[in-house]
Amino acid sequence: MSATVTRGVHHVGLTVPDLAETRQFFMESLGFEQVGDVPHYPAVFLSDSKTLITLWQAEDAKNSIAFDRKNNIGLHHFALIVEGYGALEALYNRLLNTKNVVIEFPPEPLGNSSARHMITSIPGGIRLEFISPEG
After folding, report:
1. Residues 6+ apart with CB under 8 A from 26
2. C-alpha–C-alpha distance, residues 97 and 8, integer Å
3. pLDDT band, residue 27 (cuts 50/70/90)
4. Whole-number pLDDT of residue 135
5. Is the pLDDT assigned to residue 18 strictly greater than 80?
6. Cβ atoms within 10 Å of 12's Cβ, excluding its own
7. What pLDDT sits at residue 41?
8. Which CATH superfamily hosts domain 10-59?
9. Is 3.10.180.10 the CATH number for 70-135?
């Protein structure tokens, strides 16, 4: 096969223990807008105009098992682009004081590239990487 069949990511769907808290994180900390919902499921659909995130409420959040990136099969993390090193640093400083967000590591060089990145755990424990390709 010589040509790719796919054309990028349509959306990322995440099951979360607290739909309201995770929705609030994406909207208040990252500026996403809610573009839809399915109240009876329940689920919400959020967008930053480039990426669509679907959040699904875990049915039994108290008895769910948190993902262990070294031992479970599944989503290790997902990454969102941030425009510029300054924006990445500002986001890092904002997230330092955001409830139920854990910074795994602050902005640092991404390998030998000119990009910088950081990884956090968002409310619910899902790992989210932020990458600034350029300064």
Report:
1. 32, 46, 53, 55
2. 33
3. very high
4. 67
5. yes
6. 15
7. 92
8. 2,3-Dihydroxybiphenyl 1,2-Dioxygenase, domain 1 (3.10.180.10)
9. yes
Contact 92, 107 (CB under 8 A): yes
What does the mean pLDDT of the chain come to? 92
Q: Report which residue type is found at 107.
A: P
| Beta-carbon contacts of residue 1 (< 8 Å; ≥ 6 apart) | none
Identify whether 107 is preceded by a cis peptide bond (ω within 30 of 0).
no
Q: Rounded to whole angstroms, how far apart are CA atoms 80 and 18? A: 21
Domain segments of the chain as ranges: 10-59, 70-135
The two domains 10-59 and 70-135 share their CATH topology (first three levels equal):
yes
Give the pair of three-digit tokens for residue 107. 């902005």
